[in-house]
Amino acid sequence: MVNAFASSVTARNTVVVHRALMQGDNEVEVVETNRRGHATRFAQDAARRGVDVVIGYGGDGTLNEVATGVAGSETALGVLPGGSTNVFARTLGMPNDPVAAVAQLAAGIAANAIEPIGLGKVNSRYFCFHTGVGYDAAVVKEVERRAAMKRWLGHPLFIYAAVRTWAVNYDRKQPHFTVTTPSGKPVTDGYFTVVLNTNPYTYLGNRPLDLSPAAGFDRGLVAITFRTMKIRAILGGLGGALRGGGVKPSATLDVQTDLEALSITHDAPFPYQLDGDYLGETKRLEFTHEPDAVRLVRPQSV
To answer: Distance (Å, rounded) from C-alpha 1 to C-alpha 65?
Structure first.
């Protein structure tokens, strides 16, 4: 599945990727997506037809749709970075360039290096690496309002959106939701929560933002909730992430790990995003960790 509008996808790159995947007598069909939900429907159809591997070549949103489409089937998920950040591909150790990454993917397919991994699930929708709730989602909404600029500006656009959202587009005085887990005391004053299936949360250029080393395919979800929007508290909490040690619990930061389920609720709607795609506002999110949800082609060194 190719998202031709993704930041790193070009006609030339697509030809190079296609040729590399055809080595070894593989039969390869290129399908272009052109709207939200398109990749999921194509992936579901491929899984029903018994296709061996469906590859998501685009940004993290395209990959999420493909993973959702093949989850629970025998069809494996392949990953190629084509977006601006490519969190999931880089989490797998792939270079942030599709031409360089395709050799690793082709080697994984040739070696049949396929293994089941766990995914997160929220309100019946799978996510590969994280769901952002509250402020995080409001920032993604601001970025998507300027989607035409995303291809060219990349990370500076995200920084601009983060500053603008904090300054004028997000209520920093009233909590936005409550986070409830089976074993912990409810966090009733949430402003900004990230639910992780993997780590890092994202990348700032080439630098990973490591929120929790406890997040991984073979463990439960991690929920990190900021209980204030004071800039000193947010930057202080993220300082450890930039140094690679993860965030630490404090009076203004709640961290819960190895969660099989959790819920986020409020009387008024709050925004959320899933694997980098803004999905609107809701009053309730129900999360579960789904072990062995999808069969992943592991990239191999070449």
So the answer is: 10
- Check pLDDT > 80 for residue 144: no
What is the spatial distance between Cα 79 and Cα 53, in angstroms, rounded to a whole number? 10
The answer, yes or no, to whether residue 98 has pLDDT greater than 70, is yes
pLDDT of residue 11: 83
130 or 165, greater pLDDT: 130
CATH of 127-292, one of 3.30.429.10, 3.90.25.10, 2.60.200.40, 3.60.20.30: 2.60.200.40
CA distance 198 to 87: 10
Answer yes or no: is pLDDT of 149 > 80: no
Range 244-273 average pLDDT: 93
Does 150 have pLDDT greater than 70? no
Query: Which CATH entry fits the domain spanning 2-112: 3.40.50.10330, 3.30.450.40, 1.20.1050.10, 3.40.640.10?
Result: 3.40.50.10330
Return the domain boundaries, the chain. Answer: 2-112, 127-292
CA 49, 54, 57, 60 torsion: positive or negative? Answer: positive
Whether residue 200 is preceded by a cis peptide bond, meaning omega within 30 degrees of 0, is: yes
Predicted confidence band of residue 234 (pLDDT cuts 50, 70, 90): confident
